[in-house]
């Protein structure tokens, strides 16, 4: 048998054993009565976190340890609620995993930490902060709050974020944004790809920056925005019809094929796109 196949079989067996062991572990449930705009912190070393809105004023956390090498503790101090995983002696990333299912009032601010995730949150109106290393991060249907994401190499997907203050920092993970609008949206990645699909809202400041990753924005014909795009070494392609701000023959620090400056519609939002060696493309949807 080929070594790669043997390794794959071992991984499958270990995963099955871990799942079976987790099924035998007792779940821990925490219930807290939360006031308006409460703050909830879920600090998980390893494992998934899912957050959904509650139909009551209670915060409900169901934690499932994957082994007896980790314990879960919870506490409440006023309107601040914290539930965290505590690794015990001999714990490993596999045995230290805990799965969290969380329900919170929709106006609650949540802070979620997991090294490897995945992390998912939906239908919230408070602030959402997520920290991870390789965790897959998926946030959707959020409105009105601040969204802060810090990750090393985990992919990030944001869907239907309305009127949000969004800040994303990533080293190598790809970032996908679908219908993300707000007064301030800033995305920074060292080498990950950045994809934006939406209309840049009615008024807002958007900044998409990657050092070596490609950046692509797909925008509908009715969008209204002012754009300034530049790649130092990569190609820049604009498929979207717009008015050029630079008159023919006027001096410009921008090189043809490396940048463009222009506006569409009434230029309601400001869009800045920067990359050092990646490719930039603005596409009409």
Labels describing this entry:
13-stranded mixed β-sheet; 1 helix; about 280 residues; twelve-stranded mixed β-sheet; mainly beta; elongated
Written account of the structure:
This protein is mainly beta. The chain has two domains: 25-111, no CATH class; 136-285, no CATH class. Helices cover 8% and strands 52% of the residues. It has one helix and 25 strands. It has one helix at 3-24, and strands at residues 28-33, 39-44, 49-53, 58-65, 70-77, 80-87, 98-104, 109-114, 119-122, 128-132, 137-143, 146-151, 156-162, 165-170, 175-180, 184-189, 194-197, 204-210, 215-219, 225-231, 236-238, 243-244, 259-264, 269-275, 280-284. The strands form two sheets. Strands 5-6-2-8-10-12-14-16-18-24-20-23-22 form a 13-stranded mixed β-sheet, with no helix packed on it. It has a twelve-stranded mixed β-sheet with strand order 1-4-7-3-9-11-13-15-17-19-25-21, with no helix packed on it. The longest helix has 22 residues, at 3-24. 36% of the residues are buried. Mean pLDDT is 88; it is low at 10-15 and 246-254.
